C-alpha cells in the first residue's frame, strides 16, 4: 500500500497487484488508510499500517476464509530523499534519492556512475585497465623534492564541476 500515492483507488490497484486479484474488502481498507495516514503518508511506518490492516474486518474475514490472501508480488516503497538539515532549508537542491536519479542529474548512465566511483578499486599501477580517471604529473620543487599533481581527466572533471556548481556552491561555508 505504501509503494505509491495515498489515494484510495491507487492503493486498491497496488493491493490487487500484490495479491493477484481484487477483493471487496480492499476499497473500505484503502479509504480508511487514506483518511488516517494521507496527510503524513511519506512518514508512515509499515508496522503502524499493518496494525490497521490486521484490525480491518474484511481483511480478517478473508484471512480466516477458504481462499486466504496470498502475496504474489512485492512492491517496494519508492525511495525518498531525507529532508535537509535545518541550516539548508532555504537552499534549493535537486532531489536525488537514488543512484539512478544522481546518474540522470549528472547525465551519465548508472553503470558509468559506478565506473567513475571506482568501487572495484582497480590499482592505478595496472596500465592494462582503462579505469584511470586521473593523469599524474611530477613537478620538482626548489628544494629538490618532488610534488605530484593528480589532474582529473575531462569526463571526471566535468562531473566534478557539475557537483561543485549544482550542489556545493549552493551551500554556505561554515
Model description:
The chain has 174 residues and is mainly alpha-helical. The protein folds into 2 domains: 8-64, no CATH class; 87-170, no CATH class. Helix content is 41%, strand content 8%. The protein has a two-stranded antiparallel ribbon with strand order 1-2. Helix 2 packs across helix 4. The model has no long low-confidence stretch (mean pLDDT 89).
Mind sketching the topology for me?
Layout: H1 8-19, H2 25-37, H3 46-55, H4 57-64, H5 99-106, H6 110-117, E1 134-140, E2 146-152, H7 154-166
Antiparallel strand pairs: 1-2
Number of structural domains:
2
Strands across the major sheet, in which order?
1-2
Largest sheet: 2 strands, antiparallel
List low-confidence stretches.
none
Structural class assignment: mainly alpha
Number of strands: 2
Query: Compute the gyration radius: what is it?
Result: 26 Å
- The separation of the N and C termini measures 42 Å
Strand residue percentage: 5-15%
Name the helix and strand elements from N-terminus to C-terminus, one letter apiece: HHHHHHEEH
Calculate the mean pLDDT score and round it.
89
Number of helix segments?
A: 7
Approximate helicity band:
40-55%
Shape summary: elongated
Amino acid at each position: 500500500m505504501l509503494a505509491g500515492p495515498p489515494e484510495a483507488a491507487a492503493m486498491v490497484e497496488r493491493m490487487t497487484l500484490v495479491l493477484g486479484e481484487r477483493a471487496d474488502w480492499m476499497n473500505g481498507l484503502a479509504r480508511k488508510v487514506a483518511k488516517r495516514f494521507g496527510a503524513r503518508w511519506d512518514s508512515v511506518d509499515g508496522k503502524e499500517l499493518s496494525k490497521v490492516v490486521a484490525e480491518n474486518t474484511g481483511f480478517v474475514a478473508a484471512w480466516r476464509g477458504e481462499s486466504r490472501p496470498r502475496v504474489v508480488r512485492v512492491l517496494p516503497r519508492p525511495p525518498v530523499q531525507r529532508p535537509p538539515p535545518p541550516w539548508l532549508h532555504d537552499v534549493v537542491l535537486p532531489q536525488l534519492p537514488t543512484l539512478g536519479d544522481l546518474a540522470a542529474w549528472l547525465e551519465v548512465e548508472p553503470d558509468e556512475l559506478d565506473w567513475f566511483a571506482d568501487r572495484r578499486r582497480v590499482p592505478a599501477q595496472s596500465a592494462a585497465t582503462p579505469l584511470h580517471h586521473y593523469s599524474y604529473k611530477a613537478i620538482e620543487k626548489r628544494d629538490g623534492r618532488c610534488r605530484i599533481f593528480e589532474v582529473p581527466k575531462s569526463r571526471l572533471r566535468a562531473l566534478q564541476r557539475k557537483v561543485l556548481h549544482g550542489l556545493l556552491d549552493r551551500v554556505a561555508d561554515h
